[in-house]
Fold this protein.
Amino acid sequence: MAKNVMQDVIPKDKRSIRNIPIPGSKRPKISKPHDDEPDEPVTVSRSRKIPPPRQTKSKKVFVLGFILILILAIGGIMTVFGKTTLVITPKKAEASVNTEITASSDNSTPVLFQMVELEDTLTKQVPATDEAYVEEQARGTVVVYNNFDEDDQRLITNTRFESPDGKIYRIRESIVVPGKQGNTPGSVEVIVYADEPGEDYNISNATFTIPGFKGDPRYDAFYAETKTSISGGFIGQRKQIAEGVLNDAHQELDTTLRANLLGAIQAQVPKDLVVLEELVTITYEDAPQKDNGDMTTIGRIGHIKAPLIQNKALAKEIARAHNVPTDIELSIPSFEGVTVDYVDSDASDGQITFSIAGPVKFVAVLDEGKIRSALGGKQKSDLANTLAGIPAIASAEASISPFWISSFPEDGSKINIVIR
């Protein structure tokens, strides 16, 4: 009876601890492949990452070398195209002045000047409805030559010039013909006017003698040649323009001529000279008239004379007269707000006198070439000591790029100087 009870307790499949499943876990079933079947590939879970293979040592060296070369190249480019800027504040002074200055063209005074003359012509078409009888003289520009000696020669107002066919032309102002330099004759330009009206005095080119020198050795050495044609001579009926229309046209042309001539003079002024507009003389005259039916072309000729004055010498004379130190060179950068007037404008004796009144600002003159030469190759830290020997400088600041460069370029011309 006991034997039958034991059989009821043990299950028929004879389970043991080895084949009792663990709760919450499943044992994977592995089936052994047959010998004649190919191995199946191993499946890798997506949640796992396979690390990349390590770089070889040679590849690391190559990359590091490339980066180093790139850094050196960029540094080299920045060094080559680096920039050095020097900002300088020159010494300055100011004085309220009221003085007279005499300037000369012959080195007879401390202040020198040279007279510059220019001419320009503008035309305009206006309606003409009437006619009148007119007589007009031809005019044109000639160059007068002095091939006599090295001394300047003055020719007075109304000096005559004679053409090969005996026609006489005159100058309406006194001129000075410079002396010759070596084998080169001195020369000056001047406008001549026909002695009589009429078209017979219109000529395209000619060489003139000076009758006033006949019987004198200078007769063969002084002469003139046309620079422009001599034209405008006329006698007869000519179209007339209403007075109001003509005046308005002249005013318009003269205003434009003045601006053009002043601009042309300023464009020619060297850095060390100055033009004082109050000392500029501009004269206007009619150009030959040309009729074209009911319209007439009128013209105006503007002639400007401007003394170009040495700025530094002028500044020194004014400073000296008003107890401004002159131990360093000074200049006057602007005459704005200063009153300038002629005292004597007759330059026939080679001198002019003018007055200057008002607040004048003086600025020390800087020799940029000397500054660049002094700084070439010097350390930036030596800036103050290096410039201490240049008394015209009040202060200076330098900036050098790229940041690792600590010295000024050996070539001083590469230093950019800014004056403030």
Summary: The CA atoms of residues 169 and 195 lie 5 Å apart.
